[in-house]
């Protein structure tokens, strides 16, 4: 059945992937983005295949926009997600995850639509419990450079809770762990895009800290599948669900794997660890498996191979274009 679906943050990394999949499934998509951290290039290949509204998802005018009617589903993905961007735009990051989330919840109430809110593994902060289940309340610093993102996402979850309990809104919260693919901009600042681009350019691969800190990397197709299952399953209403890969890797091991897969001669260099950077990050996904029947399918090596090939092609095309 064809649905009318709103996707905020449509020009972002996850948003553009989701928009493409929903279009290919035959749905009518209304994408919303103000290009704070998203890029028009992410949507260029989808031009004229969906409705795009250039706007801030915090704007209450969206509730009466002429294109936003008979909405069945809302994916609220809008927010800077890389430390590079949310530390550059802290107030905007706070606003989109609080005022923007409430605005989209009001739209859900108005349209009687279902909603998925994308929160983050950063809600666990620098965790003292490992691995992290949804019941863990986190170890988050409210007074630091990452707080604008971490705490705003947590407050966004509170808005979802209040609308679910007070207004019976069919809202679900996805705590997303590190997601990657070639769709990440080469200057995004997240670890996979950094490592791959540095390796392909023959630059030093920069590891922060001693590289023993861990992350759990999930390929974008797995994350998108999880989000769509959350929207589909009524069992997920009013639930917070981890979406991430339960296989844990040290940052140094990832750097070494990227170096081997690219065949680069780049050196691995070590730099001071940023403030509040989590030491370990690994989800339990029992809830996702039980409620959604979801688990990641793409291994880190396979995902990196696809990412490296795509970045290599983009880099070669850029060099060719510069030569004329």
From TrEMBL:
InterPro entries membership: Epimerase_deHydtase (IPR001509), NAD(P)-bd_dom_sf (IPR036291), UXS-like (IPR044516)
Membrane-topology annotation of the record: Single-pass type II membrane protein
Gene Ontology CC entries for this record: cytoplasm
Broad class of the protein's primary localization: Golgi
Keywords linked to the UniProt accession: Decarboxylase, Glycoprotein, Golgi apparatus, Lyase, Membrane, NAD, Signal-anchor, Transmembrane, Transmembrane helix
GO MF annotation list: NAD+ binding; UDP-glucuronate decarboxylase activity
Sequence ranges assigned to domain NAD-dependent epimerase/dehydratase in this UniProt record: 5-244
GO biological process: one example: D-xylose metabolic process
Locations listed in the record: Golgi apparatus membrane; Golgi apparatus, Golgi stack membrane
Cofactor: NAD(+)
Family annotation (Pfam families): Epimerase
Domain of life: Bacteria
UniProt-listed Gene3D superfamilies: NAD(P)-binding Rossmann-like Domain
PANTHER family, sorted: UDP-GLUCURONIC ACID DECARBOXYLASE 1 (PTHR43078:SF6), UDP-GLUCURONIC ACID DECARBOXYLASE-RELATED (PTHR43078)
Protein name as catalogued: NAD-dependent dehydratase
Species per Swiss-Prot/TrEMBL record: Pontibacillus chungwhensis BH030062
């Amino acid at each position: 059945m064809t649905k009318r679906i709103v996707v905020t943050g449509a020009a972002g990394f996850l948003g553009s992937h989701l928009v493409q999949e929903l279009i290919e499934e035959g749905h009518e998509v209304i994408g919303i983005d103000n290009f704070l951290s998203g890029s028009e290039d992410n949507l260029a290949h989808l031009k004229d295949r969906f409705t795009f509204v250039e706007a801030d998802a915090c704007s209450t005018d969206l509730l009466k926009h002429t294109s936003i009617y008979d909405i069945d589903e809302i994916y609220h993905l809008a927010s800077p997600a890389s430390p590079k961007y949310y530390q550059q735009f802290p107030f905007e990051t706070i606003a989109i995850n609080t005022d923007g989330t409430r605005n989209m919840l009001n739209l859900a109430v108005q349209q009687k639509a279902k909603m998925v809110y994308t929160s983050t593994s950063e809600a666990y902060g620098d965790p003292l419990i490992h691995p992290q289940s949804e019941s863990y309340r986190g170890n988050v610093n409210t007074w630091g450079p990452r707080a604008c993102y971490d705490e705003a996402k947590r407050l966004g979850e509170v808005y979802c809770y209040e609308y679910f309990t007070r207004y019976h809104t069919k809202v679900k919260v996805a705590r997303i762990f590190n997601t990657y693919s070639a769709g990440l901009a080469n200057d995004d600042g997240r670890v996979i895009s950094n490592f791959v681009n540095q390796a392909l350019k023959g630059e030093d691969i920069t590891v922060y800290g001693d590289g023993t800190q861990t992350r759990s990397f999930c390929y974008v197709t797995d994350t998108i599948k999880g989000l769509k299952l959350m929207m589909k399953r009524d069992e997920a209403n009013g639930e917070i669900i981890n979406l991430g890969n339960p296989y844990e890797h040290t940052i140094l091991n990832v750097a070494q794997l990227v170096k081997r897969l690219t065949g680069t001669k780049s050196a691995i260099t070590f730099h001071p660890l940023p403030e509040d950077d989590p030491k370990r990050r690994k989800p339990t996904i029992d809830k996702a498996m039980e409620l959604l029947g979801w688990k990641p399918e793409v291994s880190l090596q396979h995902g990196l191979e696809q990412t490296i090939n795509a970045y290599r092609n983009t880099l070669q095309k850029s060099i060719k274009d510069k030569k004329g």
